[in-house]
Amino acid sequence: MNLSLLFAIALALVHIWAKNLLFLESVPRNCWLSMAGGVSVAYTFIHIFPELSEGQATFEASALNGLEFLEHHVYLMSLVGFSIFYGLEKLAKTSRQHQIQIGRGDATSDQVFWLHIISFALYNALIGYLLSDPAEEASVLSLCFFFIAMGLHFLVNDFGLREHHKRVYDHRGRWVLAAAVIVGWAIGRATTISHEAIALLFAFLAGGIILNILKEELPEERETQFWAFAAGAGVYSVLLLII
């Protein structure tokens, strides 16, 4: 079986089985979640951001992009990814507060739930798509690093989504997100897009990863484990740099 398909299935299983890791739901924040966040951020800064620089150079050299009026296409896409997921996080928190005020419990409304899930499904599909990228497959080691970082990132995302949406996430949301990874991988195997488009997708992913990790690590009520986060970021950075 294709290695990237095995990794896509494994990423889908993260969403399916993460609910069984009850020890992660502790306050102060479980050190393993903070460490997972550190690994994801390290991968973004050490591996993805340098690729964005190369992608920007490729984009500027292309005569077919049709967006000459934009000077920093790739970096703008990172900002778009960051901003979109920031908006989604604010919307979910506002919805939870409103639902509490009207006596419907500490969870988002149905409309916000589906908007959140559809957005993260597209995000997961993007990761599945990039997982099937032939350029990544050319290096098994690169593929493994991507899989590890995204698997831990999914674990952090799953925790945050379950906190916002409660039972409905377990009943429906996690299955949608798991399926989205496989669908994205299948689309990636069936289609081919330009290097410029791949660069933009990675840029959007980078912005999304940074926001989704920081929103889990920064709030004071989380009582997050800085040293665990720093250890995860430090160790994975060293691995990425020396291997």
Write the layout of secondary structure elements.
Elements: H1 3-17, H2 31-61, H3 73-101, H4 110-131, H5 134-137, H6 140-165, H7 167-190, H8 195-217, H9 226-242
Helix pairs in contact: 1-6, 1-7, 2-6, 2-8, 2-9, 3-4, 3-8, 4-6, 4-7, 4-8, 6-7, 6-8
Helix content: over 70%
Q: Secondary-structure element order, as H and E?
A: HHHHHHHHH
Number of strands: 0
General form: globular
The main β sheet shows up as: none
Separate helix tally: 9
Give the class from helix and strand content and strand pairing. Answer: mainly alpha
Please state the CA-atom Rg, rounded to the nearest Å: 18 Å
Amino-to-carboxy terminus distance: 26 Å
Beta-strand portion reads under 5%
Keywords: Membrane, Transmembrane, Transmembrane helix
Protein name: ZIP Zinc transporter
Commentary on this structure:
It is a single chain. The radius of gyration is 18 Å and the shape is globular. The chain has helices at 3-17, 31-61, 73-101, 110-131, 134-137, 140-165, 167-190, 195-217, 226-242. The two termini are 26 Å apart. With 243 residues, it is an all-alpha fold. 79% of the residues lie in helices and 0% in strands. It is built from 9 helices and no strands. Helix 1 (3-17) packs antiparallel against helix 7 (167-190), helix 4 packs parallel to helix 7 and helix 6 (140-165) runs antiparallel to helix 7 (167-190).
